[in-house]
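Good morning C.,

I know you're traveling, so I'll keep this short. The sequence:
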Amino acid sequence: QVQLVESGGGLVQAGGSLRLSCAASGRTISSYTMGWFRQAPGKEREFVVAIHWSAGATYYVDSVKGRFTISRDNAKNTVYLQMNSLKPEDTAVYYCAAKLTPWYSGSYYRPPYDYWGQGTQVTVSS
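The tokens, ready to paste straight into the viewer:
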């Protein structure tokens, strides 16, 4: 019932920036947490960051804190991931995901998530 479409991935040199977008359709997103995950070749998918849509609370893993920023646009039902100071270790397929969280709690960001986008490739070269 919720469709997610990512865009904005690409190839960038270390130290550069990219902004990923995730557009949600099908239902309103106000009762959801939106998250970003990433998966490098041969690695498990890992959680990166999430935002509780209505509360505005965010949670970042330490490896991206201070470099990545998640934000939302209520009118567009879109979540963004601004990625600055990119490092080669950020190279991965990035996935947008959503989970139903009608009530805020301190663990709102934790998996499992209910809906997933198709992924967008981010490649950071040295």
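Safe travels,
E.
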